[in-house]
Amino acid sequence: xxxxxxxxxxPGAVEEAATAxxxxxxxxxxxxxxxxxxxxxxxxxxxxxxKDRPKDKRIPILLSEAGNLEASAIVTPAARxxxxxxxxxxxxxxxxxxxRGTIAFRVxxxxxxxxxxxxxxxxxxxxxxxxxxxxxxxxxxxVLEQLDGRVAIILDGGTTxxxxxxxxxxxxxxxxxxxxxxxxxTAQLEEALVGVESLS
Length: 200
What we know:
Blueprint: E1 4-7, H1 13-22, E2 27-30, E3 35-38, H2 44-51, E4 61-63, H3 77-86, E5 91-97, E6 101-106, H4 111-119, E7 123-128, H5 140-147, E8 153-156, E9 167-170, E10 177-180, H6 186-192
Helix pairs in contact: 1-4
């Protein structure tokens, strides 16, 4: 497969990316944190193969808007408060999804990403667009260097604005737990949870 590199703001680029996803192909695009690699829900195996990703690591779901979370998972008061404060943005929230177990969710603060996700039904499995164990890419060229020939389309939206991974918070139980501190600090999380929940 030959990977196509398209300017994200080119006419029809987002629609072409969404069509590729619907046809079972892999697409990389910018988010606010790093570049993401997406697949349609029925083609998750391709994500694992392209990234050489261990099969026991689940793929997060990126949402086009925070309102889609209520239909996707059991939303706790703490998760609701954090989503209201930090979405769209670099916070990943782990919740229980009926019949699917625990899944990580995020709404990226990137218009291109949200438009592709919206065109794909409002939620997409997306992980960082790198080979497992390699650096997270913050430019389209870095994605191409790692995944050339493994993905159908890379949308070039320039350098990502945040440039580091999202913070991950487990909101499945009480107290909630910070699994990875990234662009949002523990202090910022605690401030948003005043009167709602505590962090462990």
